[in-house]
Specification:
- It is globular and about 65 Å long.
- The chain folds into four domains: about 1-95, Rossmann fold, CATH 3.40.50; about 125-185, no CATH class; about 195-325, ATP-grasp fold, B domain (D-amino Acid Aminotransferase, Chain A, domain 1, 2-Layer Sandwich); about 335-430, Phosphoribosylglycinamide synthetase, C-terminal domain (Glycinamide Ribonucleotide Synthetase, Chain A, domain 4), CATH 3.90.600.
- About 30% of the residues lie in helices and about 25% in strands.
- It contains 13 helices and 22 strands.
- It is an alpha+beta fold and about 450 residues long.
- Strand 7 (about 145-150) and strand 8 form a beta hairpin.
- The strands form six sheets. The protein has a five-stranded parallel sheet, with helices on both faces. A five-stranded antiparallel sheet has the order 12-15-18-22-19. A four-stranded antiparallel sheet has the order 6-9-7-8, with helices on both faces.
- It catalyses: 5-phospho-beta-D-ribosylamine + glycine + ATP = N(1)-(5-phospho-beta-D-ribosyl)glycinamide + ADP + phosphate + H(+).
- InterPro entries: ATP-grasp, ATP_grasp_subdomain_1, PreATP-grasp_dom_sf, PRibGlycinamid_synth_ATP-grasp, PRibGlycinamide_synth, PRibGlycinamide_synth_C-dom, PRibGlycinamide_synth_C_sf, PRibGlycinamide_synth_CS.
- It comes from Anatilimnocola aggregata.
């Protein structure tokens, strides 16, 4: 089987690495890929959003299966286009991908399906939104617990968490007037801020059957202690025991199942990976947002632990046969992923800085260095993005996995390299008593 992976980030490197392990796969192509994906297969110089170019390559190279990594091509309809060309492809349709492509669509669907989430208001003009904030919070000094979100895709950065009135007014200005996130800010949402720990629950679904993966926990803020601006994710670990088996069953019943059913009823059936970003509040789990693909960096520790052939899972999803697949097999050891970033990220950063120590890090036991933002220039690996590497390790305990990941991080260097030092530390927090189960959901 010849497989094409679309994308150039850490998620796509992890997908290519795992797909290459399948006994059924003879060759892996990655479009456009990065310096790391060259270790797993052949890079193809076609942009992830060049849908006609991707289709032409898949036809010419006789690709048997295409796996779409990033959200952009999914929202643009790459799956529909591949299917129209009679090509086998994994991912949701353009209509179903609106769950991630439009936060307004997602929130309205959550409300329609009665899935627990934060209350929200939709705006098209900054003036109306700022009047809403000023009317609702007349005092400049009072707490303003809201989140302002650009409606469209913004590479994980179009969400601004506010503490004070000036924060909310500034967020509206940045999204709707200055258009820091481009056309993603044509419409936007102001929703009530939810407090608690975040968790990521991902599931494969063929539109009828749901196969839920072990929960993971991402670290979105840039700096230790969850300080600083939001990023695309600075690290993750799996499994996240803050979501125990009982809570995971509750999330499946009250969030994933109603969502899949609501999409089917609306004639926008969902096939692929449904990713629920969840806030664990004192009132119970609440959906923050849905993504329509594997998370990055959650994908890396999840695939490090997955022992079932990924091709089998993907094909069962495409063919509507997940109910015949049987339970997935997992390495019992936990995995920790630490993202190494460029100086300045999530703001402006320089590219082209040579990375050293990759071989030394990769030689450590139970370590895999996934490339996110790298390129090969004159046979040297250089930085080519904000999030550069996703250093991932297994360990007999979570503490051992963390130690091994950071041991690998210490091997790697380039000018301006940095990372959070506390990935997985939140797992040490004592669990709260879940008295919310006996309360009304809303």
């Amino acid at each position: 089987m010849r497989v094409l992976v679309i994308g150039n980030g850490g998620r796509e490197h992890a997908l290519a690495w795992k797909l290459r392990q399948s006994s059924r796969v003879t060759q892996v192509f990655i479009a456009p890929g990065n310096a790391g994906t060259l270790e797993e297969g052949e890079n193809v110089a076609i942009a992830a959003n060049d849908i006609p170019g991707l289709i032409k390559f898949a036809q010419t190279a006789k690709i048997d299966l295409t796996v779409v990594g990033p959200e952009g091509p999914l929202v643009e309809g790459v799956v529909d286009a591949f299917q129209a060309a009679k090509l086998r492809v994994f991912g949701p349709s353009r209509a179903a991908a609106q769950l991630e492509g439009s936060k307004i669509f997602c929130k309205e669907m959550l409300r329609h399906a009665d899935v627990p989430s934060a209350d929200f208001h939709v705006f098209k003009s900054p003036e109306a939104a700022q009047r809403f904030i000023l009317d609702r919070y007349p005092s400049e000094d009072e707490s303003v617990p809201v989140v302002v979100k650009a409606d469209g895709l913004a590479a994980g950065k179009g969400v601004i968490v506010c503490q004070r009135r000036r924060d909310a007014l500034d967020a509206i200005d940045r999204i709707a007037r200055k258009r820091e996130f481009g056309d993603a800010g044509k419409q936007f949402i102001i929703e009530d801020r939810l407090d608690g720990q975040e968790a990521s629950v991902l599931a494969f679904t063929d539109g009828r059957t749901i196969v839920t993966l072990p929960p993971a926990q991402d670290h979105k803020p840039a700096y230790d202690g969850d300080k600083g601006p939001n990023t695309g994710g600075m690290g993750a670990y799996c499994p996240a025991h803050i979501v125990d088996d009982r809570m995971l069953s509750w999330i499946e019943e009250h969030m994933l199942v109603p969502t899949v059913h609501a999409m089917k009823r609306s004639r926008q059936p969902f096939k692929g990976v449904l990713y629920a970003g969840i806030m664990l509040t004192n009132q119970g789990p609440r959906v923050l947002e849905y993504n329509v693909r594997l998370g990055d960096p959650e994908c890396q520790p999840l695939l490090m632990r997955l022992q079932t052939d990924l091709v089998d899972v993907i094909e069962a999803t495409i063919d509507g046969k997940l109910d015949e697949l049987g339970p997935l097999k997992w390495d019992p050891r936990p995995a920790v992923c630490v993202v190494m970033a460029s100086e300045g990220y999530p703001g402006d950063y320089e590219k082209g800085r040579q990375i050293r120590g990759l071989d030394e890090a990769g030689a450590l036991p139970d370590v895999k260095v996934f490339h996110s933002g790298t390129a090969l220039v004159d046979n040297k690996v250089v930085t080519n993005g904000g999030r550069v590497l996703a250093v991932t390790a297994l360990g007999n305990t979570l503490a051992a996995a963390k130690l091994q990941a950071y041991t690998a991080v210490k091997c790697i260097r380039w000018p301006g390299a940095w990372c959070r030092k506390d990935i997985s530390d939140k797992a040490r927090l004592p669990p709260k008593e879940d008295t919310w189960r006996d309360k009304p959901r809303r």
